[in-house]
Amino acid sequence: MPDSLIRRWTGVVIVVLCCVGLLSGFVPVGAQAPGGWIDPYRPAMLPDFAADMLDYAAAPRYTLDLTLSVTPEEAVIDGHQSVIFTNRAMIPLSDIVFRLYPNLESYGGEMAVGNLRTGETPLDSTLDATRSILTVTLPQPLQRGEAIPLDMDFSISIQAEKSALYAQFSYLKGILALPNAYPVLSVFTAGQGWWQITEQPQGDAVYSETGFYDVTLTATENLILAASGSEVNLTANSDGTLTHHYVAPLMRDFALFASEDYVSISGEQDGVTINMYYVEALPGAAESARAGLKMTQDSVRIYN
Question: What is the pLDDT of residue 27?
């Protein structure tokens, strides 16, 4: 059972806001010394399972600070990302690969990354021909079990009413679908190196590490947001924007959806809150939302 269910139907978004079930993406290397680092993520975990996070202390930890600006013509994200990456490979790593998925032809967006550094040390990087594989050169090889902090700035834009492949990344009829709207760590596999496949005519484009996410996102107050994880704080700003704070522990990735027209219904299963967002004006949307909520509740019950 994935830690979050985010699926876009006709005007419908499903988000499961608490982490449950089996984890995928890596085998734990062993917990680091327990500490307060798990505390920010506790609101998104069922209390009986919060301590499980300690078994995944070597998982990547993302901290994202995002600003979302929307006009009728385009949506733009300006962001800063900090990642703590621990080498769980059997060999030293001389570079780390990030995937810039919005630059894929099948996503149809534009993404740029700059100001790469670890601490105060700037880092060199290269982009492949698709501009979707960012290889960051480390100042020295990272040994197994060692961790390194990585910081970068980035920006993303998506044009309105532009649909690539099956509109997984899009701004259509006032609805924003923004999965993987940040530099995503690739996966290192023994004997194969970093995953660098760019062709995906159908199905999932993403192969990513399970990790921890701490995300603040500022957007205008008229936008209704649906995002991975749990919203733990909401701050009203003097300029008419709201700053949303989400935490998402042990998730494959982070996704964001937004619309001025979203309404929602909620349900619960096994202590997990399920929020369904949909556009009421779309034909059949309310019925689909109710059916989707029931299916999600059944899925959580069965796979738990």
Answer: 38
